[in-house]
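Listing 4. Sequential folding, example run.
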Amino acid sequence: MSKLVRDKIPEIIRAHDGVDPVCRIISHDAEFRQALDAKLDEEIAELRSALDEKSRVEEIADVMEVLLAIARRDGHTPEQIEDIRIQKRDKRGGFELGIILEQ
């Protein structure tokens, strides 16, 4: 099974299990983007299936971490993303009211 993992996972596996995991570093941008997209899908699925509030908030954090990694790969800072989010919220609103547009 090949999948993108957090940077410290190999170190954690070594310390916890006493084994040296087989790893490689992605060297091509296209593969990195594909791996991040797959990780985002994985984390969103985990968020959707979270059974309790603690798990849900941890999965939200994981989704945000992947989104920030995607942003950084595209050359954007978290601050830039946050500024754009606030601008869009100020102009178009957020999602707090639960408005459904019936078409």
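-- end of first protein; second protein begins --
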Amino acid sequence: MSDNTFTNNVSGQAGGAANIFLDNGVATLDHNVFNENEAGEAGGGICLSTTTGTLNIFNNTFYGNTGADGGDVYLYFDNASSSANFYNNILYNSSLPALSFSGEQTVVATYSDIEGGTGQPWFGTGCIDSDPLFADPAGGDFNLTWANFPVPDSTRSPCIDAGDPASPLDPDSTVTDMGAFYFDQTSGIEDNYSGYTKSYFRLYQNYPNPFNSSTTIRYSLCKPSCVTIHIYNISGQLVKTLANDYKVVGDYAIVWDAKGIRSGIYLCQLKTNGFQATKKLELIR
């Protein structure tokens, strides 16, 4: 389960947004947002239970969920051979305890921002209990913020570069951030589209940037789409068309070879069915 949003769901039983049972095997939950969900029983955001399986839960954002036990997450293990890996998550502004579990196995959260977690036996290595400094949680924007970037001051979200150092790097080649969305340190701004749409279509900052002759542009699609990628100069004139075709769901990378193009600021624009994003590119000779 990746790149989904669950918001304003209500369950009279367990799992405000979802109640999942895994008999055996592996279940992976990553880069999802659970916001303002409510359960009459355990797991305000989600309830996960397994007999002998493994639960991998990482880089998710939970906010404002309520449940009778485990305001954000509740885990149940029916057998001692079951297990869970819980890391790089944000659990904030939900009913406490935000994380709870029972059964024949225990859980230790690592490298996560969990409100009310300090002193809990499951509050493990790399965990913090701090305001994640979301952009606009009331409006559904859970981007991390850093108002005075790159000055390392109090405006920098404590979740930036705070994830498990063993995790893959973020697309900007920095240590992974906690939560569903990362802060792009190549541009110093949040991705230029807000709210839950970030979890569906993404245009990443090119790398390297600035660049000398060529640069790589990465993007992600959550559904099959007609995709166009254009490069414009600062005057709005079309310089290059990098893509103009139909793509299936997935992650993509395309190289712009700027040989023969003079130095300056250029704009990379991605368009799909109903979605548009733009990044600034700097070519230096």
